């Protein structure tokens, strides 16, 4: 491991029996993704050959004997695949607030879902970066679930530093840089940042690193089921980070759209990788660029050519129409779906499917609100009914949040993150209502305020 330092990783001297200094913590965190952008410049990933991956045949993969001890989480009796529920983290800062209690996390972890976690047990102990990242996540999960046996902050940060070092070595190694295991390790450390209350705000750094690594890998690098499970789990975090950083999302591209569409599991109706679920992902990839476009229009104001304004309005109308069309398809799927109590569905499976229905519906409502708010900013003639529409959507999302509470833990977790958008919509109603009937574009500060409120920790 020592030679990794030659590529620029700043090694840290740990004090396992004491608490790390603030500057030491900062140095640990600041090196999580340091070499990723340099990796892109050194190699054209279009020519990289990735190891083949056998397709997944289901959610529950057998854990080989050699990995049993490695993946056992203390005395809590938690199967590592239970951590799959944490792939529903879309907004790290809010998720970190929600997951600070033992009861919240323990309730959530009984809600397994289809994800890249099903591929981890057979790989733990074989790939150092993935192994150390999983051990790091295991430590912090155990500390939250069993606070009486919680490791000291120093030991937790020691595990984290070890995971970061092995991840950096993998990124520096051309043979390991683009493997699914390396990307998975980044995803696990992003979850660690959410669970660890002292570093939850650093979640975005890992998401940014994952985004750069996925770009460097290129669309041709996502062929196995493990690859597809990883990228579909990271779509929303990557898009949200791009939106809040005022950047276009690289996934808003026909080649990447084809990658996402290739991840569709035809027999699924309401899973993340169902046709309905993946279609929502492709909608989300368009939001950051449309937000940038809207801000450009608002900043240009009267100097903007009419043709450019009309083109912007047409793009936003197109996405809004697609979202409305998705809702019709969703309603049809509900009508055609079998009863959740049918003989073909176990009670737990029925509950999980119902949870996913709520989750997909909540995501679609958020996309509808965002698109509607962007459109009404630039389309004065539609502003009155569009503002009424987004307020109705916000009220519906708040009703869903209440209806799932105490019944569907994973849906409650995801919708609690999404509810920030509803709260921000309601809180800024008067600002946007003032612009109704003016015939002018909405002031840019109103849109800034709305988006800032959607990402606050507490609302």
UniProtKB/TrEMBL annotation:
This is Uncharacterized protein. Residues 17-54 are annotated as: Disordered. PANTHER family: FINGER DOMAIN PROTEIN, PUTATIVE (AFU_ORTHOLOGUE AFUA_8G01940)-RELATED, ZN(2)-C6 FUNGAL-TYPE DOMAIN-CONTAINING PROTEIN-RELATED. It comes from Clonostachys solani. InterPro entries: Osmoadaptation_assoc.
